[in-house]
Write a structure and sequence with these properties.
Elements (H helix, E strand, L loop, with lengths): L1 H4 L4 E4 L36 E4 L13 H15 L5 H11 L19 H13 L4 H10 L8 H16 L3 H10 L26
Antiparallel strand pairs: 1-2
Helix pairs in contact: 2-3
Length: 206
C-alpha cells in the first residue's frame, strides 16, 4: 500500500504534548508540516511527546489518500520502474509530474493530483509511437519527468504536429530532438518575444 511504502522516518524529542513543526529544523528539501498528538502515539513511544516528521522530496501526504489513490499511485509507480528506475526514483518522477514535488516547469500553477494509471499508460504508449525505445523513454523521463503530467491531446500530440508542420521534424529527426530537448513536448505558450513569465513552457526557447 502507498501509505506503508511512503511512510516517513521519524526523529523523536521530548517536548509538550502538542506543538507545531518548524520548517527551519527539518533536514529535507520539501518537508510537510503538520500536528501530532502525543496521546496518539504507540505504547513503544510513551516517553515521546512529539515527533519531527521527515519527508523526502518524492514523498506525499499518504494520510490523505484513498484506497483508490493508493492503487493508482502504485500502478503508476510500477509502470515507471519498468524503465530501469528504482521505487524512490519513480516516486520522484511522479511527484514532479503531478505536483507532489515542486517543479519550476509548473511554477505555482500545478495542483497536487494523483495520477490515473490509464492516462499515464496512454502517454507512455504515445511516446513509444514516436519511435522512442524504452531506453529512450527512460532518458526523456530523467530530463523531463513532467511529461507524464502533460495533456496528451492539447500538448504532446499538438506539439508533435506543430514540429512536423512548421519545421518538418518527424521520425528519426523527432526522436533525436526529444532525446536532446524533451521539454518541447510540454510547450504551451508562445510569447513571440513579449515575455509572459512562463519561460519554462514557451516556444521561444525552441
Amino acid at each position: 500500500m502507498l501509505g506503508n511504502s511512503l511512510a516517513s522516518p521519524l526523529l523523536s524529542y521530548s517536548c509538550p504534548p502538542l506543538v507545531p513543526f518548524s520548517k527551519t529544523n527539518v533536514v529535507t528539501a520539501s518537508p510537510n508540516i503538520r500536528w501530532l498528538n502525543a496521546n496518539s502515539l504507540s505504547p513503544n513511544a510513551t516517553k515521546v511527546a512529539w515527533k519531527w516528521v521527515l519527508r523526502s522530496t518524492a514523498q506525499i501526504e499518504s494520510g490523505t489518500l484513498t484506497e483508490e489513490d493508493n492503487k493508482n499511485w502504485e500502478a503508476c509507480r510500477e509502470a515507471v520502474t519498468t524503465f530501469s528506475f528504482s521505487v524512490e526514483e519513480a516516486d520522484k518522477i511522479l511527484g514532479k509530474a503531478f505536483g507532489q514535488v515542486h517543479s519550476p516547469y509548473w511554477g505555482e500553477e500545478r495542483k497536487k493530483t494523483i495520477p490515473k494509471f490509464e492516462m499515464l499508460k496512454e502517454i507512455l504508449d504515445y511516446l513509444r509511437s514516436l519511435s522512442l525505445s524504452d531506453g529512450d523513454i527512460s532518458k526523456v523521463l530523467k530530463k523531463f519527468p513532467e511529461v507524464l503530467g502533460c495533456n496528451l491531446e492539447l500538448e504532446l500530440k499538438t506539439n508533435t504536429q506543430i514540429l512536423e508542420k512548421e519545421w518538418d521534424i518527424k521520425g528519426k529527426t523527432l526522436r533525436s530532438l526529444l532525446l536532446r530537448n524533451p521539454r518541447v513536448l510540454g510547450y504551451n505558450v508562445d510569447c513571440k518575444g513579449d515575455c509572459m513569465a512562463q519561460c519554462t513552457r514557451c516556444w521561444v526557447r525552441f
